[in-house]
Amino acid sequence: MKITSSLTVMFSILFVLLTTTSYSQEIKIGFKDSIESAVLNENRKIIIRLPKDYNDSDKYYPVIYRLDGDLDLFIETVGVINRLVYQEELMPDMIVVMIENINRNRDMMPTNTSFFQSEPGAKNFKLFIEDELIPHINSTYRTTNERVLCGQSLSAVFTLYYFLTSPDSFDSFIACSGGFPDCEEYFIDLTNNMLQTKQDKRKKIFLTYGAKDFLDPEGVIKNQLLNFTQLFKSDENIDWELKIYKNEGHVPYQSLYHGLKFLNK
Description:
By secondary structure, the protein is α/β, with parallel strands linked by helices. 39% of the residues lie in helices and 22% in strands.
């Protein structure tokens, strides 16, 4: 009886294994592309995500350009947008364009500092975005004129630089844990010059800071951001918010979520 029972169980398991169909299905949320940049003299890779209904509609979509593009940040960005679009219904869907890094320090820094003494490349990187990347995206996909630029940490420094020097290139800016490392006077000059120039339309900028940022133990960056945003109070064409997370560290995870909610309020 014991042998018969054991054989019955064994053949039953074998039958299930043989008759169960195993299959895999590809999950695709985006794809890679590249641009041969004449400005930078190099090939720049990007990751793109199109809205869910892009291929089944004739609609045009806003675009979010996010710096420091890699797979992890891409998945995070798509997840945040999907939540705000389909679960909370707070904003329209967007095309996502992630720009991968090649030489991050060079591209993100607009000036020399004690931390960065090489030739700064932020001006050329900005020209690449304005003159090559944005036209490529606009000519390839159905886009509206609404654009968002988002950076974090060092690329947030670049985002602030972009906001102050070419505010009309984007409608909105999100700078997560950005500051002015050993270049505060440089950015104050840029800010004063920008505020003296009348903007064509209203701009939005959302900044975040984690109070437990290990890169800012003495609160220098926090004070820089507080002083920076105070300069905008007299400008009615700039809609801004600085969100400080008391229990978060460098680049608070909720930054993009709260940033997009602010831009779409």
